[in-house]
Amino acid sequence: MIVRLTFLALVAVGLLAAVHGLSLSGPKSATTGRRAFLGSLGTAAAVLAVKPGIGLADSNLPSAGAGAPAFELPNSRGDGMTSLQELTKTGKWTVLYFYPGAFTSGCTLEARGFQRDLEEYRKLNAQIVGVSVDPVEKNAQFCSEEKLDFYMLSDRGGMVSKKYGSALSIPGFGTFSNRQTYIIDPNGNLRWIFTDVESRIARHSSEVLEKLGELEKTA
Asked: Which of 87, 107, 140, 168 is catalytic?
């Protein structure tokens, strides 16, 4: 009960920030409000993550060791759709990470961590792909401004996020992707799931690299 009240309080803070941003003049203020809401949403998700039985993220996580849920989503590169099948056809491991919203502080920090370590991922024959409910144009702008050498997929409506147990549905605001990361092997099997990412963003990429190395040694 206490954890649920904490979640509601944090979301309320985000809602107030979003409404305040929307009430100010100009689209930039509205964007700032939405980012504040998403930031509070991520913090709330982190609080709930410490209580396994309580949370708004879909509890139907796919099983590690089973085939990863199939998907096909528009990518930020501007060349159409990207599917799980296309990713596995490369013969590479895939680090598929879900995030709430481009340009928010947590998502920016997380993306920069993956970019910083990108060469290490390449040495491990791995590719990075992000997923959020943001539109293609916003993801493309995010990749461009942050100079990211990997791309994002646009999961409008959150259907793929739901398949991966990574959807957060907020009445009045829709569905967002919770901050979770999945390691998929070249055969399309889901090998590892990181659910407690929000509280470990700064070191998340390093932890993914470490786990990826362990998994490849036993593959």
From this structure: 107
* Amino acid type, 15: L
The amino acid at residue 166 is S
pTM for the model stands at 0.78
Instruction: Kindly tell me the burial class for residue 66, based on how many C-beta atoms sit within 10 Å of its own C-beta (0-12, 13-18, 19 or more).
Output: exposed
Tally of CA atoms within 13 A in the half-sphere of 35 that contains its CB: 14
Question: Active-site residue 107, yes or no?
Answer: yes
Q: What is the pLDDT along the chain (219 residues), one digit of tens a residue?
A: 433 433 434 444 344 344 333 333 344 444 444 454 455 455 444 444 333 332 345 468 999 999 999 999 999 999 999 999 999 999 999 999 999 999 999 999 999 999 999 999 999 999 999 999 999 999 999 999 999 999 999 999 999 999 999 999 888 888 999 999 999 999 999 999 999 999 999 999 999 999 999 999 998
140 to each of 27, 67, 106, 149, 186, how far by Cα in Å? 19, 29, 18, 11, 26
Amino acid at 29: S
Q: How many residues does the chain have?
A: 219
Distances in Å between the alpha carbon of 37 and those of 9, 84, 104, 132? 12, 30, 9, 15
From CA 125, how far away is CA 139, in angstroms rounded? 24
